[in-house]
Amino acid sequence: RAAAEQADTGFVVARVPDAGGVAGSGPRWRYTVEVDPATGLDADDVARQVREALHDERSWARDRTLEQVSAPARARIRVVVATPETVDALCARAGLRTAGIYSCWNGRFAALNARRWEVGADGFPDIATYRSYLINHEVGHGLGYGHLGCPATGEPAPVMMQQSKGLADCVANGWPYP
Questions:
Q1: Residues ≥6 apart with Cβ < 8 Å to 151
Q2: Which phi and psi angles does 125 have, rounded to 5°?
Q3: pLDDT tier at 2 (50, 70, 90 boundaries)?
Q4: Helix (H), strand (E), coil (C) string for 36-103
Q5: What pLDDT is recorded for position 4?
Q6: Which tens digit of pLDDT belongs to each residue from 32-59?
Q7: Which of 37, 75, 135, 175 has its CA 20 to 30 A from that of 144?
Q8: What integer best gives the mean pLDDT of the chain?
């Protein structure tokens, strides 16, 4: 419980760049990018990668406006990369068990497991593809999307498929609109 309580105030909030903090058109969704200091990750570097994933034309910005903000109180989605223990505590708030391995959406946080952020998951061709998937999957939950299954052998896995748990017969994919 202490880790989850500290998580509300103890994260480093990434700076919003002078240019590039907004992408897309349509309904506006504000988000922060935050990092648990215990991970040793640089918040601004993580934010750059989150923006690259969310602001890509293959991402959720295709049909909505995504705006990175610096004030968590203004954000509908708080993207945080945190230690496995902190992610477990945040996810437990929503009744989810992440077992030190998985990430989740808990109703406020897209809680991304730092261990997975660093090493990815089986079946992904590279860490960039995995991180795009991880970001888009958990933010997708924040936007209201649920899990999907593999549509057909050899097809790109839907970004809302639980690809970290296996790809079935699909191909790893980090994008809502590949």
A1: 158, 170
A2: -70, -25
A3: very low
A4: CHHHCCCHHHHHHHHHHHHCCCCCHHHCCEEEECCCHHHCCEEEEEECHHHHHHHHHCCCCCCCCCCC
A5: 41
A6: 999 999 999 999 999 999 999 999 999 9
A7: 37
A8: 94
Quickly tell me which residue has 């215990």 as its tokens: 38
User: What is the rounded distance in angstroms from the CA atom of residue 125 to the CA atom of residue 104?
Assistant: 22
For residue range 57-99, list pLDDT tens digits in order.
999 999 999 999 999 999 999 999 999 999 999 999 999 999 9
| Contacts for 106 with CB less than 8 Å, ≥ 6 apart | 90, 91, 93, 94, 96
Going by C-alpha positions, the residue among 20, 29, 81, 87 that lies closest to residue 56 is: 20
Average of pLDDT values for 139-149?
98
The answer to whether 79 and 104 have CB atoms below 8 angstroms apart is no
11/56 Cα distance (integer angstroms): 25
DSSP character for 110? E
